[in-house]
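thread: overnight batch results

M.L. [08:02]
morning all. the overnight job finished for the chain we discussed friday. pasting input first so we're all looking at the same thing
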Amino acid sequence: MIILTRYKRQKNKINAQYVGKYAQSLDFTCKYINLLKRWNKIYVNILL
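M.L. [08:03]
and the structure it wrote out:
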């Protein structure tokens, strides 16, 4: 029983780490896309 609760706690910790990494990468992707959009606007302005 003790081993089971310990395993669950460990699993939750791993899940939390995974979710944290996923959120970080998602945030990075959003920033990257926003950066690309901004650059596209600048390029369009230069070309026009």
